Amino acid sequence: MEKHTTHTPDFLGISSGAWPALGGSTGAGEGVVIGLVDTGINPFHPSFATQTPTRRPVFTEGSKFKGTCATGERFPASACNGKIVGAQYFARAAVATGEFNASRDYASPFDADGHGRQVTHPF
Fold this sequence. Notes:
This protein is mainly alpha-helical. The chain is 16% helix and 0% strand. It has four helices and no strands. It comes from Sesamum latifolium. GO terms for molecular function: serine-type endopeptidase activity.
């Protein structure tokens, strides 16, 4: 079975006919901020693009969010593009105990193994 989880409604078999009953897709999700704690996030994945050739632009107004967008290795300031409005990382304990492995871990919110993206993109 091939995974297509970047297209969650198709993957879950959710009818596109639900949008009109909910007021339409124009402002859907407007003002909603969802917080997740995970291994990180890959801001370059198509799921977090504000627009793609096959998808209309998404609502990207993040000015009301008062959080932090930490930058670092593979996570530039542009990663917080309005669809991702904040990101932080907490590596101090891993560094202090010698568990931080620079060959697989990043001193930034970037997720190298894909778990954070897999968990986050359905939202």
